[in-house]
Specification:
Layout (H helix, E strand, L loop, with lengths): L9 H21 L5 H19 L4 E9 L9 E7 L7 E2 L3 E5 L3 E11 L1 H15 L26 E9 L6 H15 L9 E4 L3 E4 L4 E4 L4 H22 L21
Parallel strand pairs: 1-4, 5-6, 6-7
Antiparallel strand pairs: 1-2, 2-5, 3-4, 7-8, 8-9
Length: about 260
Amino acid sequence: MSRGSSKANEAFRAILESAADELHLAKKSAAAFEHKGIRGDERAAALANFFKKHLPSNVAVSKGEAIDHHGRRSGQLDLIMYDSDIAAPIAVQSENVLVPAESLLAVVEVKSIVSQSELNTCYAAAAKVRRLRPFKHQFIGARTDGARAEDGRLRCLYTVFSYDSDLGKKDWMEKEFKRIESASRDAAGTLDLIDIVYVLSSGMIRPGSKTAKTNGGEQIDTFLHFYLHVMNFLRREMQRRPLMDWQAYSSKTDSGWKKLT
């Protein structure tokens, strides 16, 4: 049975076209700021607003970091998606949240222009996320070769979203993939540490499967693939998450308790 038609539903397509236009507008508006960090924050906020409008209500989107019961931390991440039904954040500040690894579903690193340096940084950060141990087990990469999802192991989708690439459009897929391979080697990791590298102006690469798609004449097609990949992952992964036991984050000793008579 076919999973869908050859062409996206027109109403759905129009919504995503509008969203892509808003992201382009945010990119141009952010250029008014001279400070690179401010421009990056504004562009990340635009993407966060898009997801907040178009994700299930229990999926919260924020800047912040994740922590596991052993105290391992992810470091600050541009956007994290977490299941607020599993657990509220451990800490909430004015701009950042700290969430338990058990509720962490996805990470999106937002870049104005993707470069070799940015990819190196992202692969190092993705390796830290992969080492987190939600429910006392390490996150795993995408399942391949028919591996079953019923094994109880959990995933965290790690995505790089960039507005542009410093490579230009000519032979973009091949050149970008070579840089991705280099970044994964520098991080002493595997290609699948990052699930998606999406460049709004160019296209989308899935490093683990070594597949890519350029915008061609229709930018909205790759934006649609990016959005649906995130949505489908969240839908599947949320179903796999068990109930969280906060005892894992507390003291492991029961000493000090006395029986009352």
